[in-house]
Amino acid sequence: MRIIGGQYRRRLLDFPDADGLRPTPDRVRETLFNWLGQDLPGWACLDLFTGSGALGFEAASRGAARVVMIERDAKAIRALEANRAMLGVNQLDILRVDALTWLANNRESFDLIFVDPPFDSGLAATVLPEMGAHLKPGGRVYIEQARPVVAPPGLVLQRSGRAGRSHFALLIKE
Asked: For residue 20, is pLDDT > 60?
């Protein structure tokens, strides 16, 4: 996987083969960051269900001040830590914890939250209604899932698209 923009542009990252682990494709990441305006100077980002780290590393590369990566798989954690060290990225917090447990026990708020759980898990729709409580005013949620995205109360669908079987959308806090 390669980072497509920002400070670490063109850098290649390694990630393990695992069931349900698939990085967000370059084309989809490019679309997302076009929607966001390319750079995220000073933003606080949360990458739930981090997996390969494609979204979180991309945010760090584009100037995010802080990126919290939530992942429970030990193999994925080791790869994330190795990639962080290889790039020399200091603004990444990598936490080995279940995303649902973390959400239930944390009240921190973010400018941008990435929700891209294992494909067909149904977890995206499960956590989406909770995202408003973890967003700053005007904050955004990016979501990828197997079905079209429907905005829950408190969030407004800003943009959406589809790539293969994946539906993706950017929502904004009302």
From this structure: no
- pLDDT, mean over the chain: 92
Q: Is the pLDDT of residue 24 over 80?
A: no
Comparing C-alpha atoms, which of 114, 117, 162, 116 is closest to residue 142? 114
Q: Quick one: which of 107, 5, 120, 123 has its CA closest to 46?
A: 107
* Rounded distance between C-alpha atoms, residue 36 and residue 83, angstroms: 24
State the pTM of this model. 0.93
Q: Which residue has the tokens 């009240």?
A: 107
Cβ burial of 52 (10 Å; 0-12, 13-18, 19+) is buried
List the domains of the chain with CATH numbers: 26-173 (3.40.50.150)
CA dihedral 123, 128, 132, 133 (to 10 degrees): -30
Percent of the chain surpassing pLDDT 90 = 72
